[in-house]
Design goal:
single chain, alpha/beta, Adenoviral Proteinase, Chain, five-stranded mixed sheet, 5 strands, about 15% helix
């Protein structure tokens, strides 16, 4: 699934803000928001979509990776630090590391 498809699909989601490359994550953002993030920097082209969702202050920010891998990329970790250190993430892997079905999730 490409950037334009994702943007069109999420237009009706109130918390949806943007689709961006990992190196273009914003430095400031609303208290409640959702970003779809490509795991690669803009210059590389893209390998996998991730989701970062910030909810009201009584909930931890949520990170979704269909491989169920905690955030390891420098840009995502820096983004995470700007919004707090206690994050939740999905604990269930939706597909294997050798499968090419990332766009489904």
């Amino acid at each position: 699934m490409g950037t334009q498809q994702i943007m069109f699909t999420l237009l009706d989601i109130d918390s949806y803000i943007d689709v961006c490359a990992s190196d273009l994550l914003p430095h400031s953002f609303p208290k409640t928001c959702t970003y779809i993030v490509n795991a690669d920097p803009l210059t590389v082209g893209g390998s996998q979509w991730l989701t970062v969702n910030f909810r009201p202050k009584f909930y931890s920010p949520y990170y979704f990776d269909s491989y169920s891998i905690v955030p390891l990329l420098h840009d995502i970790l820096a983004f995470k630090r700007r919004k707090g250190t206690n994050w939740d993430h999905n604990g269930r892997q939706l597909h294997g590391l050798t499968r090419d079905v990332c766009g489904k999730y």
